[in-house]
Amino acid sequence: MNNVANVKLGIVAVSRDCFPMSLSESRRIKVVEAFKAKGLDIFEAKTVVENENHMMNALKEVNEAGCNALVVYLGNFGPETSETLLAKYFNGPVMYVAAAEEASDKLLDDRGDAYCGMLNASYNLKLRNIKAYIPEYPVGTPSEVADMIEEFIPVAKAIIGLNNLKVITFGPRPQDFLACNAPIKQLYNIGVEIQENSELDLFEAFNKHAGDERIPQIVKEMEEELGEGNKLASILPKLAQYELTLMDWALDNKGSREFVVFANKCWPAFQTQFGFVPCYVNARMASKGMPVACEVDIFGAVSEFIGMSVSEDIVTLLDINNSVPADMYDEHIKGKFDYTHKDTFMGFHCGNTAASKLSFCEMRNQKIMARALPKEVTYGTLEGDIAPSDITFFRLQSTSDAKLTAYVAQGEVLPVATKSFGAIGVFAISEMGRFYRHVLIEKNYPHHGAVTFGHHGKAIFEVFKYLGVEDIGYNQPKSVPYKTENPF
Known about the structure:
The chain is of the alpha/beta class. The protein contains 15 helices and 18 strands.
């Protein structure tokens, strides 16, 4: 399933009229050669932009080539107006990067001053309220610039995706789950479309899929995936029916959008009416590239999409759930890993994590829900310990007054048996205790966090910056106190 954007890069060199145009052109050629030497492709616009007429010609070139992400390359100082209008009129994410000077013997006739030009470019972008990606140190040799452009790709992939994303929801958030409730205005502002539906709409669609001829094939896929963990085989046909319901709904309702994620209600009436819990189907949908956020968590669904776009891998949504017992820490972590007890916690959800990301998996009933419901209507959750891996824990969120905020922190899942239930793992993030108090609690984040399996914090942080998020929390080292941290 192709549910993330494909990036087609273009590059346009710009030149100030009092500098040799040939300098920008020759430097652009070297950057393209270095980039293609990495096995990557980029469309090279032949027009070097010196004025607005050139800008329109270059824009026509990249548009006709089908580019959806653009690199504006300052081979010399660059023309402030036309180089920023490129970003204004280009329909996609734009990166600005500049050429370093080559050698001391070229500083007389072939000095480009792009180091200076980047300052004016950034100033003009701000004047025009134009968003752009600028690397941490945006001046480099051809090979260094090629590396920067490669780092731009996952950021561009996420931005393009968000501008073509529809979040489909079913049902209002469960009672006492205000934590997942946030104003959606900012999602419209960043280009996301939202379709909100009733649980009755979902139930009707599910019932219409009864006896669907595709159910046996989906059941077979489930049996092969579960293997010896297929402990509740009788529930698989219903789960297959539900999976087909979601897949067809996405296909029939994506409309003008290319990409779809879901944020669905999954309790308390779901079990008694559908006759199962949807956790395993949610896990399978994530493995197919269409995450389903639990408990109608719209911002959680968008966060998962960002993580999937950046990592090009399966993601999950977990509760920042419970502390690690002291005896477990002392026996399995202390002295073996460089983490304090407060650096550790358990990430959990009922069973929405893909089987391929678990050390083992088994179909079970949902233990918490079975405390108040007949056990037989709580079948359908995929349980197992999350496999040891590097991870990035992150979230895009709106405050109650509709301001975008975000956080991102890198860590790992430790190879420690959880001795618990659900899809669950022992997580470790450096300085988690302080991050928990002064970011997650202090800034009112909900308990849900998106997880990528790998360290993707750099790209995710840049996505948040591109979206205009001004407050991006992270797990600050001990030497950097939080504003709300008591110094005494």
